[in-house]
Task: structure prediction
Amino acid sequence: MGERKIRNMEEFASVSGISRPTVSKYFNDPSSVRASTRARIEAAIEQYDYRPNIYAINQNRQLTKNIGIVVPYLADPFFGEIARVIEQRCIEAGFSPSLFSSHGEAEQERDILDTLRSLKPAGVLLAPLGRTSDKSVIEAFCRDVPTVLFDSNIEGMGEAFVGSDNYSFVSQTVEYLSRTGEPPCFFEMKHPANPNANKRRRAYLDMMERLGLEPLVLQIEGTGWEFEEIGRKGGHDILSRKAMRTNTILCSNDRLAIGLLSACYEAGYKVGRDAGHDLRVASHDDHPFSRYTCPSLTTAAHDYANVSGHAVDTLFHLIESGGRFSTRDETLFSARLIMRDSA
Amino acid sequence: MGERKIRNMEEFASVSGISRPTVSKYFNDPSSVRASTRARIEAAIEQYDYRPNIYAINQNRQLTKNIGIVVPYLADPFFGEIARVIEQRCIEAGFSPSLFSSHGEAEQERDILDTLRSLKPAGVLLAPLGRTSDKSVIEAFCRDVPTVLFDSNIEGMGEAFVGSDNYSFVSQTVEYLSRTGEPPCFFEMKHPANPNANKRRRAYLDMMERLGLEPLVLQIEGTGWEFEEIGRKGGHDILSRKAMRTNTILCSNDRLAIGLLSACYEAGYKVGRDAGHDLRVASHDDHPFSRYTCPSLTTAAHDYANVSGHAVDTLFHLIESGGRFSTRDETLFSARLIMRDSA
DNA sequence: AATTATTTTTTACGCGCGTAAAGAATTTGC
DNA sequence: GCAAATTCTTTACGCGCGTAAAAAATAATT
Result:
């Protein structure tokens, strides 16, 4: 290295002793040139540290090698993990992932889709905000850009959906809790941000009926994405009102549960499954921190790896198919019950 | 809307009745054209939903309006929050932020800087991995791209550093703990990922000496970024060995403390500051979840808003200054003690 | 060695926009 | 109302690359 700086592909071609069109061909697909040619080009890359100007490359393309990843809330480590796995897979497949977070704001989600449109991505993996999303904006976006929805489904939008089977989450926790102790009430936000919450409530009601038990849904106030605080406040509320009918509370998701556990602690309730405890608390998601709550949280785990893996696979398939599927299929992965100390 | 699709600025100029160079001028700076012209262009934008091709725009620029944001570990909600604030400010200033996470891997950090270089950003806000970072890669990057380091300092790299004053964190917690009870031992990783950890240890030793107390540093095994698990395992270790000399443990950071609290709970130690508790635990960072641990965690809080705000301001200033500062200044913001229930 | 198949070179054009220069039109100041 | 200042139009070129077509070179096949 250390040679004079190469300014463009023309110069690079001349110093590497290969014609520019062939060099261009190489950068589009290294295997498309003869092995000996490839070796010479790669030696020159090594020596001169040249790489093509991505803006010039993309200017004439109506489709780039970019992939957009949109998550609703990045301060939730769940999505940080998802992002990591998805990014990795995109890079391995030769794409350039761009990560965006709506940070819980519909307006941000709109702006992100706007930005993404002008990035002309080959495809987009979108985990929408859910209830607060501007449906018409998302619909319009999905018409223009090949999009796979994940985590949170919006009926009919995107070419496919990949997520978790909420029924499988709730059926396992309800069954487990009922079998091992008093039946659970269901603790959730009155106006949940995420459509999964509604599915989970319905699954709870359904399971309870199926088991011949009387359901009890406790809906707490609060909006936004600060679920822990909402859970804590709501927890204090139901504890002080003694709104539960049994000693068992099933939370819609782990972040609410983390808040509820905090309220239980503050109010002097001992949570745990063994004798000598006042309450059992269980939940859904297997949030990265649920292992470290006190007590550790019994929950139902997403199949992280499969959800993100299959979402990426589906997107790649979509891209290869020219951006459209004939039918929109929804893939749901089952949850896995994680028994810890809280219930 | 609904008119025929505009393919380029030429077409847009003709339908808006303004010449292309003027339209171009408008998009580079709307205030650079006469108000009446601006109104006509904006009406046409509204009507035809045209926006310039960003790839064509950036191709001839040696500097774009992009800003790169690199954080070490996005599954830590702390960085999710930072990212939110910084992104917001960049957008307001008319830049396009691109967020990247090294996910704790030096190789990823290297790849990200590689990608960023080809994005030709106007500037980069980089929170390096720290100890595991490839210093020479970062140094080379900072030579080519105007960069402000934040959160974690690497001596001499980047045009400036903005972070928190580790001494201020530790001096406040040590002072508080010593004043209100037994003096603390210091709980940390033997091989911390982050250079802040070393500063904090030194600050602890210094403060203890200053107060005439005997220091005790407990260094636990474990590498990587799963601090909670490392803290939990290390916690069990020191608890079973009864390695502490007093009833008070000061953790290097909140994520370790979260793990330690979990170990304390599992081992049957009651944590809290009131009578009837076995241990006091305090820490540093004011991690978003530290409010929701059981008991809630006494800690020293980063000045989030100021750190991220000043980092962005510094970068803007750097960009206006042509990418170089004559001197590299380091700005440190003080911590704020947050007294909760754990100590 | 001759034929065929494959790969590379040469030449040339276009993408969408930035931008420079010179002249025309409009606005501003007095 | 007129000169000066500002803004806009016209014309034209270049950026770095993709890519098409035809010719040349190289490799594979028989």
Remarks:
- The first strand of chain A starts at residue 66 and ends at 71.
- DSSP finds twelve helices and twelve strands in chain A.
